[in-house]
Amino acid sequence: MEVAETIESVRSLVKAARSKGSKIGLVPTMGALHVGHVSLIEAAAKDCDFVVVSIFVNPTQFCPGEDLENYPRPLEKDLEICEKAGVDVVFNPSPEVMYGAENLTWVTVEKLSEGLCGAFRPGHFRGVTTVCAKLFNIVPADVAYLGQKDAQQAIVIKRMVADLNIPLEIAVCPTVREEDGLAVSSRNKYLSAQQRKDAAVIYKSLQKCKKMIEEGATNAKEISAGMRRIIQQVPSAEIEYVSIVDADTLEKVDSIKDKVLVAVAVKLGPARLIDNVIV
Ligand code: AMP
Hints:
Structural class: alpha/beta
Number of domains: 2
Oligomer: single chain
CATH architecture of the largest domain: 3-Layer(aba) Sandwich
Bound molecules: adenosine monophosphate
Radius of gyration: 19 Å
Strand order of the largest sheet: 1-4-3-2-5-6
Distance between the termini: 40 Å
């Protein structure tokens, strides 16, 4: 496994693989790798001949007051995980390599970036789409692997790739969960033992919603109220949103008729946790 810290070095490694006819898979991450990330690497390794994982804590997707400084950066451990998973190249650039002295070009996906997390994290998706556009230009892959855990992010990136005619397929992989259903996340590390236990209410609320819809409920307001009641069983849980939206357009749905994305964001102590299901 090679570790590339510069754009030139990762480009030349990918170019060499491509000249041999390899299909290239890219897994963009912010590091602090866990089984969720490994599932993306495994999907890439299954479909592709050459797997690149990027590890970059992207400063531009953090809002003021968020956890940029404290975000875990266990690079040695991450490299071990990548090596074990059969990754060919880890791209681990510095912020200077990615953004230079001053970055004047930004990519924004309108509408889709505005609701859900976008409403609570102003500028977040602009940072995500800009860094992904850069990564997709630096690592010209055939397929990029993203997690369903960040459903809005996957939809926004898919749209950016389509609108900018980037020759890249986006594969969205299922959310990997802990035994009690909590979506695995690098931010789960911030939780105390009690908060970690309490965090199970998030998935419990999503399951309840899924059951209600499958049993014929259609009133989104009533369903989300039921979900809120479950989350509120944990008095310290601070709900940012419980939203039922169209699974493609992310537009709010009042009466459920078609495929919906049910998405939740909850602050629990120091961690902001998100999760979703498609019903
Ligand atoms: P992050 O390092 O948090 O930016 O995540 C990098 C990629 O891993 C994103 O595409 C995430 O959606 C994906 N990911 C994070 N957690 C999970 C999970 N529990 N299951 C599947 N994919 C995940």
